[in-house]
Amino acid sequence: MEKWSLMTLTVLLALTVRWTVSLGSYSGAGKPPLYGDYEAQRHWQEVTYNLPIRQWYFNTSDNNLLYWGLDYPPLTAYHSFLCAYIAKLINPDWVALHTSRGYESQPHKLFMRTTVFVADLLVYIPAVILYCFSLKETSTKKKASALCILLYPGLILIDHGHFQYPLSLGFALWGVLCLSCDWDLWGSVAFCLALNYKQMELYHSLPFFCYLLGKCFKKGLKGKGLALLIKIAGTVVVSFAVCWLPFCTDVAQIMQVLRRLFPIDRGLFEACMFSSPPPCSKLANVWCSLSVLIKIKNVVSPQTQLKISFAVTFLSLLPACIKLTVHPSLRGFRFALVSCALSFFLFSFQVHEKSILLVSVPVCLIINEIPFMATWFLLVSTFSMLPLLLKDGLLLPYAVTTLAFLSVCAASFSILEKTSAEDLQLKPFSLSLKGYVAWFKSFPKTVRSLFLLSMTLMGLLSLASAALSPPQRFPDLFPVAVSLVSCLHFLFFWVYFNIVILWDSKNIRSQKKMS
């Protein structure tokens, strides 16, 4: 009873923080003509409720795709329709065709915020709690993990501040939970739901695929392994068929949806005509960081950009995927989710700053294993979205939730004491370097110093971005500085996670137990 009562208090605290953040501003509030993501979600409700399904993704007189045209998979559209149905019962003006454009009122804001709150409460939070209970840890460590995950500021600020639904990440987390419980078919269904809610879940697709494929290989493709592979393939096909059924009336429908999901003609960077500063100046990935020195758009054609991006992304995630396929383990699966998602964020095509959340949630899942590095990464990931958060008027929630998260992690895991090679899962790597790198003995002190330097730099940049005006000659100075600093951090973390994966002998021992 005590265990459940403490977990209940954890959930209540997390819900209180979320609701408090939701009382503030949201994306595009009072900023016509396009407003922001809040208006995008409201507009999708307007479109899905008033127009037939065959028109949802097509440009028509009633559905101007240049004004927040629907560009997510079918489950997002169905969810928008469900919200619109409830909104219509409360106040038809909220989803009236054409006349509701840019609608803003306190009752409507309360309704929209509540829909996010309910989605969090029904999908994401239960998955976090059950995942933490499934960990082979002490009761105290499970509760500490749950508290830290639920208080991660990046997701709270984007979902309940900026405005976004946590459903795709919630479904993906249910997929991880099911695989952890050896429910491979249910895990496949959950991940299919995640992928059919947001196409960015492709960031997690290869670890799911490689882990399940490796598991089938180990069981033997002439026996149980083949049967499992057929079952998983059938489950995926049926799940996709159910989600896409209303759009399967003709090929033109399917192709139009796919064009909306993957608009490759826009070029390498996330196109956003209403962004200020420009999208590339506030995104902490490699291409946007390089564009500060080399204007890639002016040098390389869009098609060549796509090919280069694909090649670099594929090569960057290949080692982790091969290791997971050859030696499938749940531990390796969790770390591969982090590594592959980070590869996509750093090197792939049309990345949004919010996409770092696709890396952060898997990092949350390993916070009990590497609390120091996980906490550091989660703080950097929140900092990387600072230009977006400042634009939405979320400076105070950003400062308070970030400091609270750091305090909780420091108190729960004593993170500054967990910096040895063993604590950071680098013991096998350090042994392979023995005799070659003498400074590895001072590694804990070096890492702590880097962490404190990182915190200081991020704090100073946060203060400068909020309080100082940039020089007229360099109006994007602070967003560019934030993106460059964050990108350097992410490259460091990408190297670190891949070292942990490739030198980890625990994966092999775990895989042998599985087989």
From TrEMBL:
Its EC number is 2.4.1.-. It catalyses: an alpha-D-Man-(1->2)-alpha-D-Man-(1->2)-alpha-D-Man-(1->3)-[alpha-D-Man-(1->2)-alpha-D-Man-(1->3)-[alpha-D-Man-(1->2)-alpha-D-Man-(1->6)]-alpha-D-Man-(1->6)]-beta-D-Man-(1->4)-beta-D-GlcNAc-(1->4)-alpha-D-GlcNAc-diphospho-di-trans,poly-cis-dolichol + a di-trans,poly-cis-dolichyl beta-D-glucosyl phosphate = an alpha-D-Glc-(1->3)-alpha-D-Man-(1->2)-alpha-D-Man-(1->2)-alpha-D-Man-(1->3)-[alpha-D-Man-(1->2)-alpha-D-Man-(1->3)-[alpha-D-Man-(1->2)-alpha-D-Man-(1->6)]-alpha-D-Man-(1->6)]-beta-D-Man-(1->4)-beta-D-GlcNAc-(1->4)-alpha-D-GlcNAc-diphospho-di-trans,poly-cis-dolichol + a di-trans,poly-cis-dolichyl phosphate + H(+). It comes from the Eukaryota. It is found in: Endoplasmic reticulum membrane. Pathway: Protein modification; protein glycosylation. It is an enzyme of class 2 (transferase). One of its GO terms (molecular function) is dolichyl pyrophosphate Man9GlcNAc2 alpha-1,3-glucosyltransferase activity. Its main location: endoplasmic reticulum. Residues 1-24 form the signal peptide. GO terms for cellular component: endoplasmic reticulum membrane. It is a multi-pass membrane protein. InterPro entries: Glyco_trans_ALG6/ALG8. The chain crosses the membrane at residues 110-133, 145-165, 171-195, 225-247, 332-349, 356-383, 395-416, 450-468, 480-503. Keywords: Endoplasmic reticulum, Glycosyltransferase, Membrane, Signal, Transferase, Transmembrane, Transmembrane helix. Dolichyl pyrophosphate Man9GlcNAc2 alpha-1,3-glucosyltransferase that operates in the biosynthetic pathway of dolichol-linked oligosaccharides, the glycan precursors employed in protein asparagine (N)-glycosylation. The assembly of dolichol-linked oligosaccharides begins on the cytosolic side of the endoplasmic reticulum membrane and finishes in its lumen. The sequential addition of sugars to dolichol pyrophosphate produces dolichol-linked oligosaccharides containing fourteen sugars, including two GlcNAcs, nine mannoses and three glucoses. Belongs to the ALG6/ALG8 glucosyltransferase family. This is Alpha-1,3-glucosyltransferase. It comes from Rostratula benghalensis (greater painted-snipe). The gene is Alg6.
